Amino acid sequence: MSDLIKENFLKILQSLEMIKKRFETIKTPDDFVLYTSIEWQQIMRLRDIISHHYDSIDNEIVFDICTNHITKLETEIREILN
Fold first, then answer.
1. Separation of alpha carbons 50 and 48, rounded Å
2. Three-class DSSP category at 53
3. If pLDDT is split at 50, 70 and 90, which confidence band does 34 have?
């Protein structure tokens, strides 16, 4: 895996971890039900995969997630936090 890819994975992981920590400090687990448009389980699974199984990830899938889904997720989380 190239250094650039590793660096990008680290950034993604850090962002997912920040999302997780920030949301956990503000909301209780029951509140996840209120925000069904966000796929919380998949987000946490992705974070775990990047953290613990980074050697077996498909780079194209991660790139697709970052390109096509992160912006929407950021918008939805900002709405929740406001």
1. 5
2. coil
3. confident
For residues 51 and 35, give the distance between their C-alpha atoms in angstroms, rounded to a whole number. 25
What mean pLDDT is reported for the chain? 76
Q: What distance in Å separates the CA atoms of residue 40 and residue 32, rounded to the nearest whole number?
A: 8
Angstrom distance (rounded) from CA 11 to CA 2:
14
Tokens 């993604």, residue?
12
- Helix 40-52 with 3-26: angle, nearest 10 deg: 140
CB atoms within 10 A of CB 9: 18
Helix pair 3-26, 59-68: axis angle to 10 deg: 50
Structure tokens that stand for 75 in this block? 């918008």
